Structure formats: structure tokens, C-alpha cells
Backbone:
């Protein structure tokens, strides 16, 4: 037999061949040692007889120094190093004369005795710095250079750490990670599926999962008891600014639970993640009904980092001769503290114009300034006495110096507009403390939404969501109008006004599930063809169960105070669903189409 | 605002609403306590005035007892419980009169005071026991019942644990898990891709990744330094017995490493996994060249759990008048210890016929029995003297009682046949100790394989594999014949004769990669269209790098001494690529095809 020898594992991340140390770990205690590092040239500087070069890797930056007097050949070689060249350098660690306190390795440098160029680099199309001059398209095409930049690399490392901590917590709670299949069946009732033609079953298609919903329910029927998965999901949507055709979920399901068990478990997950990645102890997780959230914030995902709750004004503004308020279904306002003096007429005009843009669509803005001197200045002085306006101020708890903003019109629309105004004022008035995190559970969502256009009900959450127990008899026996008032055992976790995730207690009874499919407009045949396996499973001892999914990309972004998920995805797609780096999608060979028995129709639809 | 109250997390897996305990945790120390459990009825027994029911969940089985004298109504209800009914039972833990030592909860039972049927069950189509009467098709269709069976559930739990330990180890070694995209570009040179039509880019297709190979290399160029991912991969192959269209890999890549660093790291991973899931300390990880593996075992994945190394016999069997050996390119044999008396003529005939089956295709089997009395009995006594045959025995290290089996013919074919014979004898002679694990690194694979049929080279590993450093000049300048002798820096980890995974040092130089594409028959345009992004990346400071992938499904099976990966996949597909439970693939709506601009060709190809 060939050489057979025992390897002993060196359980260390130090590899003694290409490098003895990475670029982030040398310290004063290493002074005098001979070391080898490898990495990318960040930049070089020639200062008289000395040449300096910063070498970068994932772990940090270390300064190399070359001395023209002592080794002219090496120093000359060093002067030819370009940015992003990959090098290996061996030398002696020595103390720096001018230290760099901003860098972990800033007390030392390496006096190089051997230099080895491992690979050269063309001049990068944008600078590899924290702030880069590269536009989005360029950064995406050269994503491998973009990821070398510390902010992007840190995002990717954060994501990895977040996944590890997610698994650590869920494992500690007895959850089992089960991989569900990617090649499943198309159920086109929700968003559009991506489909995958089958070669072995010609004319038939798999679909990529929009979520593992039915599989995780099947796992509950199978007795897995607590399931989770960090899993890619797919939706073929027209891409809006911050949507991706493939995205990642923390997907969970539990058996023999009530809603409280689930909220406790996932409040625990959120606390664990914030503590173990950001070192932050989250505060309370208050709860609010969907109806209250809509009434008080005009949104099912209120940002609780600042106040300005809605105050409904119908009862004290109507019948005073102001026809706009009189005609409105809802008159509702918010109070901004201490801006009466600061906010000029021009500011008010700006704000009104901002509200009147088509994206928001408000007709106009009424405001009441409760001035520091106690006087009232308002746009509706003609219709209301100062006394009446002071009553308004009282209802809002407004003090001298505050401004009340009022919108009116159709209730749902007006609430949405006021929500936009509230969020905008939160930004303009800098009411949000950086690093503040305010979680919130929103509960008691409606089960069904009536869609006027298609003249049918849609599931507010999804078709597997259970109505609240008390509503089940009404659901089984109620009339059409009753259905509109059913509440679901559904919940969303909101942090800082972003929906982190949501879930529900599921239906585990065949008759109730069939009833729900009926209400949602499925024929018996459609329900059976698409979800027959689940209905069947419910007949063989399905336990009560429920679960939840967090949007993993969104969670990464929110935890880092960022609004775009794209920066937390190593290889995102652009708004046309294209991967700019690999240039996908692309055409395929005719032979591939032929094997799949497919033709591409060239005419426009 | 609605009720706002602080939740305190109970960091426990005990949910006090549906159950106070699971079915696996009650012990003698709980006697006298009031408890609630929930689960599935495994079976019931009526014994006079008592009714017993076993309740099962993921954690175990607990016995319930109902007393007709004390609560006739409850007992009558209990007698109606069917198998697989889902129930919730509250009662007092008491000591059992006849204990069950085979069950963790066997010392206690629950005397039930409240019984709640949470869901009923039809009679299952097969028994939910360790050994079931369900055939494969039935088990797959009702996979949710199959997974309730302990052996299947244990496999799934093992898989989850193996993934957790994999991540724990790789995280401790500084690896970052990065999610690479699933919607990528078709590169049809390898196995067939599954493709995904793009609606937003009509006539164009994504492909599902066969592996994240190019992305992980890009991540090295991006400075991620150490990457891993436990990731689904896809191959549209004609499915053989134990292949799945979607399968899972532990995928890894490292920068600034030589082969030794990678072998150390992943020997470390294997040791960690065996220790922390099976409690086993693995022995040595010997190494063998590909050439030696083929010469000594006729296989690139030798099973080292038993001996019987090949002995080549050309030099001492030729020229003695036995025309079959004289004409053979290779005469080669193995020695089976101590079976000369045991193995009858009929056994030899059976073995010969087994070898002559078309799957193996040997012409015949020569054997030499070195009998206990020192005499020799052989099928080639006509051509060789006893003295000559004793010399053979000596070459094999054979002792009295051993049998030498000899095959001959074209070298490669003969080695394969003898490999089959060796493995078969290993089984028949029960040479494999249960629970024994023998790892092996196979090294120094050829870089290229010449394919006579297509008249071109194939990459033995894949097109990104680096030749050994010493072979690079020969690769850049050599002639056609030289190319056949190039060795790659590639390696496979074999355990018990199963290939667990493999990898290589990669090319990180654009010119060398282009040369390799040339050799593999890519035109410049094809190489650029498919892999231009990678070639481009190599021009911007690509570090030396290498990596490896383990087949996760296979690893699960091998670690459990099982041969089928299907039993370690929650929802596997059958040999036609169908999911029998959800009945996928299936036809899709015409509207979906229309949106994708696709037609299905109905004629046969």
C-alpha cells in the first residue's frame, strides 16, 4: 500500500503553509516573531527609503514595510504592487513608530523579508473602500469586488451569525430542522409560482415552493412536533424595489400549542437573536389587535419608536358648518410636539404638497398650531372658535408649542394617508433614536378579505389559517356578511414598523378546511387536486398545530437599521429578476427544449 | 391602546396548555402528580375492569389507565379510541404494577381523570410500528404516517442533529455560511440541468444549481476566506436506484490553502460528526493514490473494513501454456482466508455463476484451494505444477485453509470484476464487523479522462480542478498524450467503500482555466458565455483556493450502516422523479404556460 500515515487534527484555524497569521490578529505580543501573512493589497505608500503596503483579508488589515536601504530588490518589487494584487509576505513583526489606534493591528507592522505575488489584479472598476464610487449596476456585475468591501462583507458575516444563533435557539427548544422538497406542485392561487418542466414526465411541471407551508403541516401530522427550517422560497412577482424572486425564511411549526405558546417561543427567538448578535436586551413585546393597529396607527405594522397616535375627531368636529369634515367618513389627526414655532408656513406648504402627491393622494391638510403664547393659529379658524380648537388640543393632550395635523375623508384611505404623514414626520422631526428597537405583536387579524373586483373572498393570511375558536360555529353556519367579521388566530411580529414575520394557528380538521376552501372559491375538484394530500392527512389523526415564518432577509436588514434587503444577500437579483454577474436568465440550447418537449412562442402575447 | 403587557419568556419546552409533559418524560419521581399529556393512540387493551391505552409522541410512549369501577363513562369513552386518534389526557401519575423495562416511562402510568379527543383517525393503511406491513409505494403516498414510525422519525432526527454538528464544527473553524442563489444559469456540459422559464425575461431560462461550485469560487475571490453551506442541489438525471433529483451537500471552500489544510479540516469534520452524533472515535484516515486504489482494490472507493488486497500475477503465471492467462492483459487474484474446507464445489459454482451474470460479466473463475492437509486443489492443475501453485500461495501470503480466486482479461475490466468479487466475498464471508467505520482519502486522481466515444477529454472531477503544481508546465505545453498523464490536486473521502465526498484545489489563474476549457472542448465563445464571470473574476486578484463537498444524504446513510439515502429524506421522490404524496409533477394551467410564452409539444420526440 501507498504511504499510509496517521494524521493528527490540529484543531485550529491556523494554516501553516500559506500563512501563519491572518491580517487581523498580530499584536504587540508578536513583536520579534517571524510570520507569514497573505491577502490583498489595499494600498501602498512610498516615503523616501521606505515603502509601506496595507494587506487586507476578511479579518483585518496589516501594514507591511519594505526598506530600500536594506533590501533594494524587494523594495523595488513592492513598489510595483498594484491595488488588489494577492500577495504572500514573510517577515519580522516590529513595533510601529506611528501607531494607528483605529486599527486592531495598528501597533505593529511587518518588516518583510520575502514577498510572493500569488496573483495580479487589473485596476478594479470601483474603489474597494467602505464608501465606494461604484454605482449599483457596476457593483452587482462585479459582486466579487463589492463583497471585498467591509460593509458588504460584514452584512454577509452578520447573516451567517444570525442563522447560527437562530439554529442554536431553536435546537435548544427541541425543534428539528427538516428539509422539505424544492420540486413540488404548482398551486397558482397565491402569488405566481416559478415552474420547472419535468423531462421524465413530459408536459408536466414541478413548482418551486412559495413556502413550505403544506409540508410543515404534514410534518406535524407526522408527529415531528416541533419543526424548523431556514429555507429559500420563491415567488415569481413583478419585482418591486425591495423584493427578490428568491428569499429566505425562518420557517417553524409546532404541535399541541395555543397561540400563547407560539408567541412565547418566538419572542424568545427574537430576544435571543438581538442579545447574541447585537448584544441588545429587547424591551417589552406589547400586543395590539389588528383593528386597534389600524385605528391608532393606520397600519398593520405600526412603528412604535415614536408616539403620535391617531385621535379620531368625528364627534367634536362635525356639525359646525365645515362641509369637508361634515362630509367625511372619518376626521382623524395626530399631534407633533413642540414644532409650532419651528414649522413655518413654507414647511406646512411643503408637507401639504408631499401629502398631495399621487403616491399618497390626500386632498389637503388641516393643521392647528397651539402657539407658545397660548394663541391658536389654524387653517379652519373660519369654522371653529378658539374655544372649540382648544378642546381639540385637549383631546390630543396637546400643549403649547404643539401642532395638530388633521386629515379627513373615506375612513380606510384617510388612515393610510395619516400613517404616511406620521412616518414622514417621524423622519423629518428625527423622532427615531438610532439603535432603538420596538417590537410589537399584532393579533386578531380578519380571517377573510372581501375582494370587490374578483367578487370573492381572499385569505388574509393563507387558506390554512384557523378562525378563532369562538368564531368556528359562525364560520360553519353563518351567512355571507358573517364571514366578513370572522377573526383568525393569526399574528404578525413587527419591529420598528417592519413586518418581520407572521403565522397562525392552522386548521387541523378536514371539514373546516373544506369549508374554508369553499369560501375562498375553490371547487371541490380544485381543492382535491391541489391540496388533497393535506385534506387526506387530516383524516389520519392531525394534531392541533400552528406556526410562523420570519423573513430572514428582512430581519437582517431591520436589525442593522437598514431598509434594503439586497445588501444582505450575497448574490441578489435586480428589479428585472436578473443576476447581473452571471447574466442569468439566459437562452438555453434547443436540445434542452426538445428534451423537455417545449416550444417558445415568439409572438407577443 | 389595547392591553399592553410584558411577557416573560419561560425558557422551557414545557407548554402548560395542551400538555404539561410529553409522552417520554414521566418517571417514578412524578408519581402522585397531576399531569396532562397529548399524543396518538398507539394501542389499547381491555382487561376486565381496566382499560389501558398507550399514547405516543416524538418523545416516547406513556401508558394511560382507565378504571371501569371508578369512572365508567370515561372508561367507556376510552374503549372507543381507535389507533392513531389524537387525544389529550389529564390524570395522576402512579406506579405500574407490572413495569416495562424496555420503555423509559415503563415504571409509571397515568390514571386518567379527563379525556379529550382532539382528532379522530381512519384506520391507517399500514401499521405504525418499527416493522410495518406497508410497501414502498404505500409508505410514500402516506408519508405522514410513515414518518410516525420510530425508525423513519429517528433517521430524520439524526439528519437534523448531523446538520447542527456540521455547522457547529465549521463555525468553530471560522467558516461563514453564505447562501448562494438557486435561480442561476444553465451550463449543460455536466449532468442535465433543471431549468426554470423566466416570465419577466421571456424565452429565457434560469437553471437550478447542480452545485454552488462557481459561486463558492467567486466567494473566495470576494475574500470570504472560508465558506460553507448545507445546500440543496439538483440534477435532472435518469434516476437510478439510489439517486434523487434534489439532494443535499455540505459544500465548503477555503482560500490560501494547500491540499493538506483541506484534508486536515475535513478529517476534523468527520471526526467531530462521528464523535458527537454516534459517540465514536474514528481511527486513522489513511491515504491512497487513485492509481494504487485501482491496482490494489479495483475501485476508487475501496472498502477497508476487510483485507483481500489484489495480487497481480502476470510475472509468474504467464508462459506456462495456459492460453487464457497468456492472452490476458492482467491476471490478478485475491485470497480468502480459511474457507478451503467450508467452500464446497457447489459454492464455487454459485460464485462462478454470480460472476458470469451480465452485470459483472466475468468469463470464468480460477481458484486454488490450499487445503488444510497442505495439498493444492485448483481449476488450473493441468497447466501449473503444485510447486508453481505453492509459489502463488506464497505471493498471496496464503496459508493452509485459504483459497485464492483469480480473474484475468483486459486490465481495467478485470479489476472491476475482481472488486465486485471481493465485495461479494466480504458479505458472504461476513468479514465486515457491524459498527466498524474505515475512512480513507483517495488522492492524485487523473485530471482528464479521454472519452473514445465523443473523442474528447472529460474532467475527471470538474473543469475547475487544478492540475498538480508540478504538472502545470506539462499541461500548458504538452502534447495530447501528455494530457492523459496529468494528475489533479483532487481528493475523495471514502468511508466503508462509499464515496462521502470529494474536492480539489481549484485553478485560480485565468490562462490555466482557459487552457483547461480548451482541452475540454469548449470554444472560446462557449467558455465566455457560460463562465465569463469566473474568468473575469480571476483577473481581479483571485486567491489560491480549494474546497470540497460531502454528500449529506449519503453521509447520513453510511453513518447509520444503511445503503439507501431515501430513508434519510423526509419527502423523497420515486424512481420516476415523482412525489407520490403530493402527486408532483403535474400539469399546469394554460394561463401559466401563456404567461411564460411556452407551448407543450404533444408529438413524441
Residues:
Amino acid at each position: 500500500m501507498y504511504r499510509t500515515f496517521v494524521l493528527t487534527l490540529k484543531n485550529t484555524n491556523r494554516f501553516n503553509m500559506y500563512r501563519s497569521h491572518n491580517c487581523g490578529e498580530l499584536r504587540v505580543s508578536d513583536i520579534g516573531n517571524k510570520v507569514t501573512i497573505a491577502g490583498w493589497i489595499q494600498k501602498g505608500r512610498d516615503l523616501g527609503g521606505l515603502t509601506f503596503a496595507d494587506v487586507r483579508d476578511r479579518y483585518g488589515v496589516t501594514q507591511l514595510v519594505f526598506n530600500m536601504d536594506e533590501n533594494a530588490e524587494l523594495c523595488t518589487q513592492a513598489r510595483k504592487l498594484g491595488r488588489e494584487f494577492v500577495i504572500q509576505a514573510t517577515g519580522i513583526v516590529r513595533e510601529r513608530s506611528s501607531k494607528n489606534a483605529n486599527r486592531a493591528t495598528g501597533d505593529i507592522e511587518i518588516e518583510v523579508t520575502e514577498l510572493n505575488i500569488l496573483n495580479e489584479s487589473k485596476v478594479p472598476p470601483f474603489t474597494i473602500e467602505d464608501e465606494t464610487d461604484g454605482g449599483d449596476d457596476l457593483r452587482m456585475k462585479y459582486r466579487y469586488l463589492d463583497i471585498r468591501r467591509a460593509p458588504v462583507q460584514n452584512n454577509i458575516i452578520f447573516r451567517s451569525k444570525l442563522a447560527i444563533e437562530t439554529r442554536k435557539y431553536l435546537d435548544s427548544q427541541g425543534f428539528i430542522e427538516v428539509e422539505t422538497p424544492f420540486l413540488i406542485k404548482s398551486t397558482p392561487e397565491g402569488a405566481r409560482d416559478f415552474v420547472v418542466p419535468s423531462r421524465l414526465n413530459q408536459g408536466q411541471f414541478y413548482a418551486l415552493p412559495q413556502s413550505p407551508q403544506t409540508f410543515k403541516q404534514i410534518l406535524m401530522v407526522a408527529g415531528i412536533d416541533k419543526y424548523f427550517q431556514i429555507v429559500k422560497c420563491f415567488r415569481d412577482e413583478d419585482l418591486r424595489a425591495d423584493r427578490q424572486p428568491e428569499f429566505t425564511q425562518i420557517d417553524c411549526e409546532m404541535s399541541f400549542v395555543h397561540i400563547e405558546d407560539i408567541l412565547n417561543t418566538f419572542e424568545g427567538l427574537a430576544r435571543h437573536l438581538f442579545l447574541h448578535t447585537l448584544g441588545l436586551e429587547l424591551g417589552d413585546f406589547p400586543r395590539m389587535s389588528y383593528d386597534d393597529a389600524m385605528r391608532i396607527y393606520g397600519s398593520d405594522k405600526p412603528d412604535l419608536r415614536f408616539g403620535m397616535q391617531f385621535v379620531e375627531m368625528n364627534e367634536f368636529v362635525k356639525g359646525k358648518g365645515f362641509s369637508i369634515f361634515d362630509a367625511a367618513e372619518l376626521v382623524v389627526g395626530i399631534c407633533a410636539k413642540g414644532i409650532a414655532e419651528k414649522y413655518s408656513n413654507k414647511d406646512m406648504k411643503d408637507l401639504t404638497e408631499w401629502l398631495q402627491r399621487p403616491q399618497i393622494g390626500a386632498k389637503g391638510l388641516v393643521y392647528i398650531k397651539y402657539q407658545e403664547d397660548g394663541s391658536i393659529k389654524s387653517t379652519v379658524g373660519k369654522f371653529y372658535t378658539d374655544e372649540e380648537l382648544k378642546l381639540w388640543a385637549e383631546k390630543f393632550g396637546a400643549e403649547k408649542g404643539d401642532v395638530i395635523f388633521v386629515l379627513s375623508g373615506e375612513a380606510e384611505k384617510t388612515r393610510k394617508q395619516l400613517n404616511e404623514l406620521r412616518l414622514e414626520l417621524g423622519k423629518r422631526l428625527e423622532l427615531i433614536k438610532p439603535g432603538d428597537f420596538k417590537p410589537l405583536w399584532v393579533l386578531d387579524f380578519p380571517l377573510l378579505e372581501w375582494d370587490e373586483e374578483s367578487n370573492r373572498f381572499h385569505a388574509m393570511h393563507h387558506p390554512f389559517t384557523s378562525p378563532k375558536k369562538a368564531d368556528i360555529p359562525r364560520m360553519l353556519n353563518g351567512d355571507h356578511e358573517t364571514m366578513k367579521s370572522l377573526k383568525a388566530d393569526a399574528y404578525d411580529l413587527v419591529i420598528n414598523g417592519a413586518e418581520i414575520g407572521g403565522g397562525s394557528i392552522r386548521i387541523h380538521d378536514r371539514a373546516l378546511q373544506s369549508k374554508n376552501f369553499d369560501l375562498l372559491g375553490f371547487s371541490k375538484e380544485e381543492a382535491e387536486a391541489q391540496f388533497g394530500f393535506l385534506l387526506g392527512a387530516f383524516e389520519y389523526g392531525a394534531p392541533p398545530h400552528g406556526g410562523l415564518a420570519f423573513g430572514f432577509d428582512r430581519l437582517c436588514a431591520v436589525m442593522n437599521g437598514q431598509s434594503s434587503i439586497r445588501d444582505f444577500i450575497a448574490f441578489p437579483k435586480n428589479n428585472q429578476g436578473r443576476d447581473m454577474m452571471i447574466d442569468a436568465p439566459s437562452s438555453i440550447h434547443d436540445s434542452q427544449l426538445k428534451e423537455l418537449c417545449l416550444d417558445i412562442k415568439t409572438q407577443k402575447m
Q: What stands out?
A: The domain at 152-178+209-283+550-594 of chain B is CATH 3.30.930.10 (BirA Bifunctional Protein; domain 2). Confidence is low (pLDDT under 50) at residues 1-15 of chain B.
